[in-house]
Amino acid sequence: MWTLPNILTMSRIFVIPLLVASFYMEQPLGSHIAFVLFAVAGITDFFDGYLARATGSVSKIGMFLDPIADKLMVGAIIVMVVAVGWVNSVHVVAAVIIMCRELLVSGLREFLAGIQVSVPVSMLAKWKTTVQMVALGALCWAKGAVVFGLPALEIGIALLWVAAVLTLYTGYDYLRAGLKHMV
């Protein structure tokens, strides 16, 4: 259990309270801290899987915790950017779409694992995750940050919608693949 990849995965879970607290700090300092914490968590997400495969230390606990850590991090960020009002109005719909898909796919994967069926991650789902993470990173950094001459908030909102569209499509793909095993 105490391999470096598993420790990296667990660090993403343990950082969530700090990430949430950063949204309540004086801004823009809090959003800068949120961005750094989220970026570091994203880096650990890459390296935990890479190191596990490279060192032959892929473990059941790691395979269990990794997607949970990802979903907890995504859920915490979405809840916080909506709670502080950085994502509001019609844009909350995109956030809800992403949250619903995360829950749907988690439940579907749990069901399919119970009948020993694995659904591989598609390349489009990987792109969805990348766009979603960049969007959430920009939204974390929303207070006062400018990226490529544009406010981080606008970049985050635009990419949140792109991620929501990709989320609908990839969620439908997973559901369709899973339904074959349910009937």
Distance between the termini: 37 Å
Helical fraction equals over 70%
Number of helices in the DSSP assignment: 7
CATH level 4 superfamily: CDP-alcohol phosphotransferase transmembrane (TM) domain
Output the CATH topology: Four Helix Bundle (Hemerythrin (Met), subunit A)
Largest sheet: 2 strands, antiparallel
Shape: globular
| Secondary structure category | mainly alpha
Count the domains.
1
* Average pLDDT, all residues: 90
- Spatially, the strands of the biggest sheet line up as 1-2
User: Strand share of the residues?
Assistant: under 5%
Q: Per CATH, which architecture?
A: Up-down Bundle
What would CATH call the class?
Mainly Alpha
Number of strands: 2
Unreliable residue runs: none
Instruction: Write the H/E string, N to C.
Output: HHHHHHEEH
Calculate Rg over CA atoms: 17 Å
Brief overview:
With 183 residues, the protein is mostly helical. It has helices at 4-14, 16-22, 29-55, 60-83, 91-114, 123-140, 152-182, and strands spanning 146-147, 150-151.
Structure notes:
- This protein has one domain: Up-down Bundle (Four Helix Bundle (Hemerythrin (Met), subunit A)), CATH 1.20.120.1760.
- It has 183 residues and is mainly alpha-helical.
- The chain has helices at residues 4-14, 16-22, 29-55, 60-83, 91-114, 123-140, 152-182; strands at residues 146-147, 150-151.
- The protein has a two-stranded antiparallel sheet.
Key words describing this protein structure:
single chain, 183 residues, mainly alpha, Four Helix Bundle (Hemerythrin (Met), subunit A), two-stranded antiparallel sheet, 7 helices, 2 strands, 78% helix, globular
